[in-house]
Automatic annotation (TrEMBL):
Protein name per the record: Histone-lysine N-methyltransferase SETD1B
Region described as Disordered: 61-84, 174-362
UniProt record similarity statement: Belongs to the UDP-glycosyltransferase family.
The gene coding this protein: LOC105059277
Biased composition (Basic and acidic residues): 300-309
Compositional bias per record (Low complexity), positions renumbered to this chain: 72-84
Keyword set includes Ligase: no
Pro residues compositional bias, start-end: 61-71, 184-202, 212-244, 251-263, 333-348
UniProt keyword terms in alphabetical order: Transferase
SUPFAM superfamilies, alphabetized: UDP-Glycosyltransferase/glycogen phosphorylase
Organism per entry: Elaeis guineensis var. tenera (Oil palm)
């Protein structure tokens, strides 16, 4: 078993917590201890024995529903107070990890959700190497990063601009610039100070590495057991702005010399790199959708760090000069962060303070030493390659991070109740859903869901209801109780999951329609043979679940990364068609036309969706298994816990 422990810090909400749990399980299967910080203990989720839950309350943006895991104190560590200094509490948590009387293993690395990037610099204060974890796909980050360096003046005569190094079919359009937070035509941000984002800069973590004291006296009994109670606090600290020429955070601690090289020298991929693409070399080829394409067999789990390969001469982890040394090694205990330091000058405040999601641009993650994405090379190789080149840091696709039961099902039915926490907030049981699906012809059902966070306007939902009624095709419509919609001014508003047009829909269509208010067993629905089409907002988890089940998509993005995901599906993978792609409202005719086009025609789209499913026919992608191995090889072992 490896010395030390990996700390995993997810953002709240099921779309972030579930992938973090699956990532933790996969890391633990490589004999690493994991400390998973969650607001409560998901007692009915399968966890590897090497994972311990630390109940820890992080800031919760107003209007966002809490994650599904339910609290339980049976196996969890003490929790921080939900009120108080959340960022300071995290600093206190790390400080206590270096106390001589703390029985828990020393931290060797922290994996921090991209939405929690304020914590990266706190990790740096403690010389704990930190990695940014993206629960979304790589195309969104790549396109957003490219767009951050452009303006509408860069658009060509056709109002598009192709990004060198990215597929031509993913060219940016004027609508992409209009959707950017802060643009006059964009909807108000879901995050930011007015919607749950961080306030103006204050508190610890401004990127100044202060003098460090002697290493902590790791004594006997240091391993195992929960940490002491966490202290409350309320100081929120965004990360520092990038400095000129700064290549990011420090490399991993050189306590034993340079970290071992991964089994391949090109960052994220487990084989030879893709051929270089220049601005004028044409589009990337369409992905060859073959099972396990491009992957090497996954090595068996190995004990401790004996599996590190020797360094490969002439190969490095970075595509450019490495960052400056980290300091005295990540086993040193720094003084408490200075919570009273002044904020940075206004002109250096990052993009998240101009209306974007908090801390989600690459500039906000300068302190991260690598990036992990919830995707795989088979789906998004050119985007991972682009990000590796742009960041000059390791970039790995380690997903899709779906439940293990999904991968072992091998094309058979997946029961959500067996792989995810049980939910009581549903008007229809999983058993009733299964019986309803069993009564429908193969490939005949339209599944409609916009996820748990956002939904179209009430006017558009009325058009959707009318379209489903007129289509005369069987459908399941999952309507979330607390999803946010936008009022006539474009601002998000709370809803109770009901609206007038929905009330009579079920009675008018009879047994042809099934309306579910609240949680829906999505994996069951998508993996059932009766489901022939998924009308989706293109949240990343929903997107990869549909691809994994071979279900073609009708794309209706609502907010944020959903627009890029929809384009990946319709243009790059060609596994769906768009109902909505611009700023125009969706009409009943759009809904009916899209359904008929996909259900009665577009055979090539259905074949492409089936080909996407073939990628995952052999289980978890071998490319992602190799990437996880490379990431763990990148983490140096502790030479001596007492040093």
């Amino acid at each position: 078993m490896a010395d030390g422990e990996i700390i995993v810090v997810p953002f709240h909400g099921s779309g972030h917590i579930f992938p973090a749990i699956e990532l933790s399980n996969r890391l633990a299967s490589h004999n690493y201890r994991i400390a998973l910080l969650l607001p409560s203990n998901p007692s009915d989720v399968s966890l590897h024995p090497l994972i311990r839950i630390v109940e820890f309350s992080m800031p919760h943006p107003p209007g966002f529903p809490p994650g599904p895991p339910q609290p339980s104190s049976s196996t969890s560590s003490p929790s921080a107070s939900p009120s108080g200094t959340h960022w300071s509490s995290f600093a206190d948590f790390l400080a206590r990890r270096f106390d001589s009387d703390d029985p828990s293993p020393p931290p060797i690395c922290a994996i921090v959700d991209v939405m929690m990037s304020q914590l990266l610099d706190i990790c740096r204060e403690f010389e704990i190497p930190a990695v940014s974890f993206f629960t979304s796909g790589a195309c969104t980050t790549a396109l957003d990063h490219a767009m951050s360096k452009l303006s509408t003046e860069d658009l060509g005569p056709d109002r598009t601009v192709t990004i060198p190094g990215l597929p031509e079919e993913m060219a940016l359009t004027s609508q992409d610039f209009n959707n950017r937070p802060g643009h006059p035509g964009a909807p108000p941000p879901m995050f930011g100070p007015d919607h749950g984002g961080p306030p103006p800069h204050s508190g610890p973590g401004r990127g100044v590495v202060r003098p460090f004291g002697p290493p902590p006296p790791f004594g006997p009994g240091h391993f195992g057991g929960p940490p002491p109670p966490l202290l409350p606090g309320d100081d929120i600290a965004p990360p520092p702005p990038p400095g000129p020429g700064h290549h990011g955070g420090p490399p991993l601690s050189p306590r034993r010399g340079p970290p071992p090289q991964p089994p391949f020298g090109h960052g994220h991929c487990d084989g030879p790199p893709a051929p270089p693409t220049s601005a004028g070399s044409g589009p990337h080829p369409m992905p060859q959708l073959r099972p396990g394409d491009g992957g090497a067999p996954r090595p068996p789990p190995r004990e401790g760090h004996d599996h590190h390969p020797p360094p490969v001469p002439g190969h490095g982890h970075f595509a450019g000069p490495p960052p400056p040394p980290f300091g005295h090694g990540h086993g040193c205990r720094p003084p408490p962060p200075d919570v009273g330091a002044p904020p940075p000058p206004p002109d250096r405040i990052g993009p998240r303070h101009r209306g974007g999601p908090p801390g989600t641009s690459l500039a906000d993650m300068e302190s991260a030493i690598a990036f992990l994405f919830n995707t795989c090379d088979d789906l998004e190789r050119p985007f991972l390659e682009y990000l590796k080149k742009e960041t000059k840091k390791p970039v790995w696709g380690v997903g899709p991070l779906l439940p293990a039961a999904f991968w072992s099902a091998a094309g058979s039915l997946v029961h959500d109740a067996e792989v995810r926490p049980k939910r009581d907030d549903s008007t229809v049981s999983e058993r009733d859903v299964l019986e309803w699906l069993d009564s429908k012809p193969r490939g005949s059902v339209i599944y409609v869901s916009f996820g748990s966070i956002v939904a179209p306007s009430e006017a558009e939902l009325a058009e959707l209801a009318a379209g489903l009624e007129e289509s005369n095709r069987p459908f399941i419509w999952a309507v979330q109780h607390r999803a946010l919609r936008h009022d006539p001014r474009g601002f998000p508003v709370h809803t109770d999951g009901s609206f007038s047009e929905l009330e009579g829909l079920a009675s008018r269509v009879g047994g042809r329609g099934l309306v579910i208010r609240g949680w829906a067993p999505q994996l069951l629905i998508l993996s059932h043979g009766a489901t022939g089409d998924f009308l989706t907002h293109c949240g990343w988890n929903s997107t990869v679940e549909a691809l994994g089940c071979g279900v073609p998509m009708l794309t209706w993005p609502v907010h944020g990364d959903q627009h890029h995901n929809a384009r990946l599906v319709t243009r790059r993978l060609q596994a769906g068609i768009a109902i909505k792609s611009g700023s125009e409202s969706v009409s009943k005719n759009d809904v009916v036309g899209g359904i008929e086009r996909l259900m009665a025609g577009e055979e090539e789209v259905r074949q492409r969706a089936a080909s996407a499913r073939a990628i995952f026919a052999g289980g978890f992608p071998r490319t992602s298994s190799a990437s996880l191995d490379a990431f763990l090889d990148f983490i140096p072992p502790l030479s001596d816990p007492k040093s």
